[in-house]
Write a structure and sequence with these properties.
By secondary structure, this protein is α+β, with helices and mostly antiparallel strands. It is built from three helices and seven strands; from the N terminus they run ββββββααβα. The strands form two sheets. Strands 1, 2, 3 and 4 form a four-stranded antiparallel beta sheet that branches. A three-stranded antiparallel beta sheet has the order 6-5-7. It is elongated and about 85 Å long.
Length: 155
């Protein structure tokens, strides 16, 4: 009589060019045959593909007076969502932006992505410096200070 044992193999990570990571879990069935040997038969596999996370520079633009707030992030969708939530809740760290948002309303602000940073094939790369350089390039170009924006000049 064969003994049926189920076990789960560990996750395997497969890398691709666009940092989409594929996780594979294989479920095996172990069977002992008549000679006492155990063999594993793959039953089924599950694939998980998380979303591709975009990195780059974004802006929050006041469509009434043209002022902008510039920032960068390793997760553009997440940072835009966070800024929108903070503004709606009255908790944004930039008080001038928060004041204008409260006065003229959400419908007069746009959340835009200005530039993307293309990821490299190596998953161990830290993009912090590259994002800072990309943001500085856009800050130099748009000068989002004083009457043109909500950013403060770094010293």
């Amino acid at each position: 009589m064969s003994k049926k044992v189920f076990h789960k193999a560990p996750f395997y990570q497969i890398e691709s060019n666009y940092r989409k990571i594929l996780f594979l879990t294989i479920f095996f069935k172990q069977i002992k045959n008549n000679h006492g040997y155990v063999k594993s038969i793959p039953l089924y596999a599950l694939y998980f593909t998380p979303m591709c996370i975009h990195m780059g520079v974004y802006q929050i633009r006041n469509m009434i007076n043209g002022k902008i707030f510039l920032g960068s992030s390793k997760d553009l969708k997440g940072i835009i969502n966070r800024n929108r939530f903070q503004l709606k809740s009255g908790l944004h760290v930039n008080k001038k932006l928060q004041r204008d948002f409260n006065e003229i309303g959400e419908s007069n602000f746009s959340f835009e992505i200005l530039d993307y940073l293309k990821p490299k094939d190596d998953l161990e790369v830290d993009y912090t410096e590259e994002l800072q350089m990309l943001e500085e390039m856009w800050v130099d170009k748009l000068q989002p200070y004083d009457e043109k924006g909500y950013n403060t000049k770094s010293r």
